[in-house]
Specification:
The structure is a single chain. The protein is mainly α. Helices cover 77% and strands 0% of the residues. The longest helix has 43 residues. It is globular.
């Protein structure tokens, strides 16, 4: 069926849409929706001509297309953007930023490490786009105040949030898409990849510090003191919104952690929390809604519509048949294939369509290698920053904020460091997934966590010894004065 006029037309529209989007000369949201609209006409033509693919359709052609879209993922992304908009308007993130700056003492390297740790932490609970929507303005604001080049910070944060999101089912939209198609358990994803994410951080940090070593220094004392004189509490614009945001995010995190074990989907929690925050906002709700990235939301709608058409036409099954001829029945080949090929594709296409197209294939060959869904999650997240920054929306958010400051991130600079780290990460991840098949998830989790924690302590502590000593001296001086 996939090679007849219907399948060929769908494939041509899909490829054509993405070729136009990749030129970056046409608005990607408009183009994805346009492609979906054209696909709707193709579905209509198939219905009129009584094409075999229409057998069993119970609704109008376009309704059949729309009903198959991953609406739970679309609602999740929209809800998370609303939560970020409300929390950001309350001053919550500015408050956190000032708290993060203080331990650095104006030392650029310590501030850099602190921000990357923070990005790693929140990437487990926010999707990559939301993470960069939070971090980009904060990073720029702090760096401007301390006269630091913010570009190395943004590039490193974008890369970090991509690989730090791997253990979390809500850490990236591709994770949700793959989990939805493969029934991947959130607990298994966390246990399988949390040690790996820490190890990747452990490996990446020295490389990043070496790469950007020439950009680091120490800010003049008077600028640091001026910034530190600001009471973080003054950043809170609305106490009601601030406390509501804190409570909402805590409930959200608990819901994400416990929900999957109870059979409750993460998008449902996100939707309820977002709606509750809008209800509390009342007269300001419309203002917050204008700050939602509707372009990203509707891009997802168009994208999912195109992927649905590929499935209906049988093209995904054809691709699976082609892959079967390559990997055969060898579990090792299948695992390595599902790491490197999707990663390469994600480098040039957005990692979302790669996830949506390949997830059914990962399910089909799960008997050959049970770790294929895990391999696909790993691949599309890492592939988001190799060769080009186009593979992950988080990268484009960082680049977009730099352009707004009229100090854009150089495309090739992102490519160089992203590709270097990406290749290293893919090699480590391939070995990790093969080890999972040999020794099992739980044994590797215990061993990996031990190695990662010890390694991080040995790596990080030296950078903060001076800060610890400064805080100790300040404490002693304060005590001495109070005694006097």
């Amino acid at each position: 069926m996939a090679l007849d006029w219907f399948g060929l037309t769908v494939l041509a529209i899909f490829i054509g849409t993405y070729l136009v989007i990749s030129t970056e000369k046409i608005n990607r949201t408009g183009m994805s929706l346009f492609g979906m609209g054209i696909i709707g006409f193709v579905f209509w033509a198939a219905s009129v001509l009584h094409h075999p693919v229409t057998e069993g359709w119970e609704h109008s052609p376009f309704a059949e297309l729309a009903l198959r879209i991953e609406w739970d993922t679309v609602l999740f992304v929209t809800s998370m953007m609303i939560i970020v908009a409300v929390a950001g308007a309350s001053g919550m993130f500015q408050y956190v930023a000032l708290r993060l700056v203080r331990p650095s003492g104006g030392d650029h390297k310590r501030l850099y490490i602190t921000f990357l740790f923070f990005v790693f932490g929140i990437s487990l609970f926010f999707d990559t786009v939301s993470t960069m929507l939070i971090m980009s303005p904060l990073t720029i604001e702090v760096c401007r105040a301390l006269e630091i080049d913010f570009k190395p910070f943004l590039v490193s944060e974008a890369i970090t949030c991509n690989f730090a999101s791997i253990p979390s089912i809500v850490g990236a939209v591709p994770n949700l898409v793959i989990a939805g198609r493969t029934d991947l358990d959130a607990g298994l994803l966390f246990v399988a990849f949390m040690p790996l994410a820490l190890i990747l951080f452990l490996v990446s940090l020295p490389i990043l510090l070496k790469w950007y070593s020439k950009t680091f220094g120490v800010t003049d004392r008077h600028r640091v003191e001026a910034l530190f004189d600001i009471d973080p509490a003054h950043m809170i614009k609305s106490k009601r919104d601030f406390y509501a945001s804190v409570i909402a995010i805590i409930i959200l995190i608990i819901g994400f952690a416990l929900g999957p074990t109870l059979g409750l989907a993460p998008p449902m929690f996100a939707l309820v929390i977002a709606a509750f925050m809008l209800i509390l906002s009342h007269d300001r709700a419309n203002k917050f809604l204008t700050e939602v990235g509707w372009d990203t939301v509707f891009f997802l709608v168009g994208l999912f519509g195109l992927v649905v058409a590929l499935g209906v036409a049988g093209l995904i099954d054809d691709l699976a048949n082609g892959i079967e001829g390559i990997i055969g029945t060898d579990a090792n080949i299948a695992t390595v294939f599902m790491v490197w090929i999707p990663a390469m594709l994600s480098a040039f296409l957005d990692n979302l369509p790669v996830s949506a197209v390949l997830a059914p294939i990962a399910v089909r060959f799960i008997d050959v290698s049970p770790v294929l869904p895990l391999a696909l999650v790993f691949a599309v997240n890492i592939g988001g920053y190799i060769f080009t920054p186009l593979g992950s929306p988080a990268n484009m958010v960082a680049i977009g904020f730099s352009e707004k400051e009229h100090d854009p991130i150089i495309f090739m600079e992102f490519v160089k460091i992203g590709t270097l780290l990406g290749i290293v990460h893919l090699a480590i991840g391939s070995i990790w997934l093969l080890l999972i098949m040999i020794v099992g998830v739980l044994i590797l989790f215990i061993a990996g966590m031990g190695i990662a924690i010890v390694g991080l302590i040995l790596l990080i502590v030296p950078y903060f010894k001076e800060t610890i000593a400064e805080r100790r001296d300040e404490y002693l001086i304060s005590n001495r004065r109070s005694l006097e």
